[in-house]
Amino acid sequence: MSVTVRFAPSPTGQIHIGNARTALFNWLFAKKAGGRFVLRFDDTDVGRSRREYANQIEADLGWLGIAPDLTVRQSERFALYERAVEKLQTAGFLYPCYETPEELELRRKIRLSRRLPPVYGREALKLSGEQKAAFEDEGRRPHWRFLLPNFDADPFSPKRTEVRWDDIVRGPQTVDLASMSDPVLVREDGTFLYTLPSVVDDIDLGITHVIRGDDHVTNTGAQIALFEALGATAPAFGHHNLLTTVTGEGLSKRTGSLSIAGLRDGGIEPMAVASLAVLIGTSETVTAYRDMEALAAQFDPASSSKSSAKFDPVELEALSRSLIQSMPFEEAAPRLAGMGIGGPKAEPFWLAVRGNIEKLSDAANWWRIVAEGPEKAELSEDDRAFVREALNLLPPEPWDRETWRSWTEAVKEKTGRKGKALFKPLRLALTGREAGPELADLLPLLGREGISARRP
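Now predict its structure.
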């Protein structure tokens, strides 16, 4: 069976760079293996899930370069989950529980006071038919728990039951099912918690590898048991370390913390996001890769450390800047054209300005300066007179990169000015800015007519 992975976001907010890390780990893993990538929206929480968030997630993945082979929505697959519930109930793996949250909390506190682990004691298994009927008459509706296979004959005498797997990221892992409460799979209102739909979908969609954050490690033991209860073989699992802010705070879709949409709108390059999201917190050097193929060649999930990875958005900005400043014209051209930058001057213009911009959209400001002229520069009267004299010394065209040197040499000889006193007024008059691209590169783009029009 070919490698099939999935990325399963809940459409309850914008995905952030931490979510992108999981998506990219799966995408690159599948890409290296020639496999398939499934985008699965975990939208069973109909109260919080929004289609606009799902649309935004698809757009964000597309911007990063991730193209799903299949997209499914759990909200359209309830019949599958209901059949799985019936199968588990018939086999005795699902049992009804009638405790209220307050009653469960009281039991938890009692166990803690006795220095016992706060696991559910399976009291509901002792209920008689009459007791269940009485609860129903009170208006209580059951939630349903999955009976973990952590005992021999007596479910009230759990024993150490180890579930082992060779984690793609973390290596050999072990979870003891006796240390866990039987997980709730179905709520009182009949809606499903995450575990059941996730396992059922992984079976139905043929998922071979599940790669996700390491906050799911403990859950994996119960999920493997559920796969087996449903008569299926569990996929391989991998759990990567999580990303946090530099202060150690977790990222959240609800707060929009470092959202992919926000980074895109802020002018960050997609491969800067992808490179940082994949490589930070690993043994690999964090560097900006130009495309997914190059990043996939470097990608090794096992290189992730076991501790969370802190990152600074400033590092993201530096990676983005390095991509822009080394971007070939062929790559930049379609985006430049979208800003109205085209024609025979477009390529020399890009090569002239790319080393002096933070984000690609900054090129539009320099194009305006080249095409239309700068805003009025603040020059002293002496500097204004100097610039006028310098413009009288402009050589005849055609011009090339050497024109700037020959022109300024002539100006220096005629006026006696040199260094900052010579170059700063000329730069201000020509561009309106004290710093920027090499004037040797800009001069041929401005042309004799364009420069003469900037006479102060």
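The mean pLDDT is 94.
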